[in-house]
């Protein structure tokens, strides 16, 4: 009986110590939770394989919208090549070619400028459009996870959990050293990003536009998870949608894709 009592008492003490240790553990801060959610997303996207991705080719159907109605439809091929990361700068080049034979024009977007290419020549994008492209890319969650994750000044702040289109999500505010913020919704089930949003000042009306992008239909692409469906909205109105039929990575894309031909006519900017 004495042995039983001793054993019971010892067990109770061990249990009390364990509970006390648990209760004494510091709670996860909002910053720690935010960074954990982001790190879990990177791991699900492919971890090192995702961050080592040098280029990508996406082909599919692209739709543009005006006042909720389809205003344009084309087969689009998007070529992307990553450059060495530069803090606070867009370090990639992108070419968007349109048409089944890629003969219906293209957009060329680089770290030094951007052009709208047609049979007439290459017309530089107006300054505001190019500025918005750079701002959107710097706040793109996939670009952040690939090239900006450990950039000086980056912070990750959990906004807790919620539901988005019936899915439980974790919400994280990601802010860079220039105080630009994007709020990203990560699925609690898959850990993958399914929505992002940010506000951008509209210089015409001197107010703010809310830019939202929704990601879906993830598939494995050479060890990397990538969304095949992308939808963009501005102020609640759908403006763009892309349904990819194929995505490839590691294609060793050459400089010629991301450069203007020497003999191409350069047109003046539209006024």
> What's the arrangement of strands in the largest beta sheet?
6-5-4-3-2-1-13-12-11-10-9-8-7
What proportion of the residues form beta strands (DSSP E)? 35-45%
CATH superfamily: Lipoprotein localisation LolA/LolB/LppX
CATH topology: outer membrane lipoprotein receptor (LolB), chain A
Can you tell me about this structure?
- The chain is of the alpha+beta class and 271 residues long.
- It has one domain: Clam (outer membrane lipoprotein receptor (LolB), chain A).
- The protein has 5 helices and 13 strands.
- Strands 6-5-4-3-2-1-13-12-11-10-9-8-7 form a 13-stranded antiparallel beta sheet, with helices on one face.
- Strand 3 and strand 4 form a beta hairpin.
- The longest helix has 23 residues, at 2-24.
- The N and C termini lie far apart (96 Å).
- Residues 1-22 have low confidence and may be disordered.
Layout of helices and strands, plus pairs?
Layout: H1 2-24, H2 30-45, H3 48-51, E1 55-66, E2 69-82, E3 92-98, E4 106-109, E5 114-118, E6 121-124, H4 127-138, H5 141-148, E7 155-164, E8 167-175, E9 181-187, E10 193-202, E11 207-221, E12 224-234, E13 237-249
Antiparallel strand pairs: 1-2, 1-13, 2-3, 3-4, 4-5, 5-6, 7-8, 8-9, 9-10, 10-11, 11-12, 12-13
Question: What would you say about this model in short?
Answer:
With 271 residues, the protein is α+β, with helices and mostly antiparallel strands.
